[in-house]
């Protein structure tokens, strides 16, 4: 079964679905690789104007596949791929919309944050629990620093609690909160609004939003990747990821 599904809604709208429902769309090397390729392929099509990202099954995406992440020989590959994925979403020429439900956690919340617009189902849980796994949410911090107040960033990253969609809306982490069965309709409604604009004007507006920041997303991701890899190689990460997979509390004294 393919781990990424690509559906052309119209010549101008493509829906990309993360398709590992049995693992709550956890980001494996295969999923990351196929997702990057799908986004880049769609972005290269001249008529493409909207990319909608969603998840199959009970959750949008619960972040890095921590069973795979236990293998230290794959740590650099997965980190690089996450950085490339977030960069590909952010730099995509089409407008990107995250249609989120169930849970958007860690790297899954990062994918959501890298999109231009976010629609969340009412009962969605969102958060960045990286510190509880001995990790640093450096890559997603690239986008949080652009979108949220510093106090809210500290709440999300230092407290590491999952928040509900209503709280995420208050923070500005999502644009709309709707009933679960209305998520795609709301995403398509925003897509229709975008399509009323001139294609080149919309694309130029996206580029200018990025260029007006003092540093680029790509530079920030490279800087953040160093911190992410430092944490991934630590004893704390080995303990935190191991504890998660073994369904026990981590022992931070190790």
Briefly, what is this?
The protein has eleven helices and nine strands.
How would you describe this protein?
With 254 residues, the chain is α/β, with parallel strands linked by helices. It has a domain at 4-180: 2-enoyl-CoA Hydratase, Chain A, domain 1, CATH 3.90.226.10. It contains 11 helices and 9 strands. It has a 6-stranded mixed β-sheet, sandwiched between helices. The protein has a 3-stranded mixed β-sheet with strand order 5-7-8. The chain starts with a strand and ends in a 9-residue tail after the last helix.
Question: Topology, pairings included?
Answer:
Elements (H helix, E strand, L loop, with lengths): L3 E7 L2 E6 L10 H16 L5 E6 L10 H4 L5 H17 L3 E6 L2 E3 L1 H8 L2 E5 L3 E3 L10 H10 L2 H10 L3 E2 H7 L4 E3 L4 H13 L3 H13 L5 H16 L2 H11 L9
Parallel strand pairs: 2-3, 3-4, 4-6, 5-7, 6-9
Antiparallel strand pairs: 1-2, 7-8
Characteristic terms for this protein:
49% helix, 254 residues, three-stranded mixed sheet, 11 helices, six-stranded mixed sheet, globular, 2-enoyl-CoA Hydratase, Chain A, domain 1
Order of helices and strands: EEHEHHEEHEEHHEHEHHHH
- The geometry reads as globular
- What is the name of the CATH superfamily of one domain? 2-enoyl-CoA Hydratase, Chain A, domain 1
Could you name the CATH class of one domain? Alpha Beta
Query: What proportion strand?
Result: 15-25%
Please state how the strands of the largest beta sheet are arranged side by side: 1-2-3-4-6-9
State mean pLDDT (0 to 100 scale): 93
Please estimate the helix content.
40-55%
The main pleated sheet reads as:
6 strands, mixed
Uncertain regions spanning at least 5 consecutive residues: none
Q: Write down the Rg.
A: 17 Å
Count up the helices. 11
What is the second-level CATH architecture of one domain?
A: Alpha-Beta Complex
What is the rounded distance between the termini?
40 Å
Per the CATH scheme, the topology name of one domain is 2-enoyl-CoA Hydratase, Chain A, domain 1
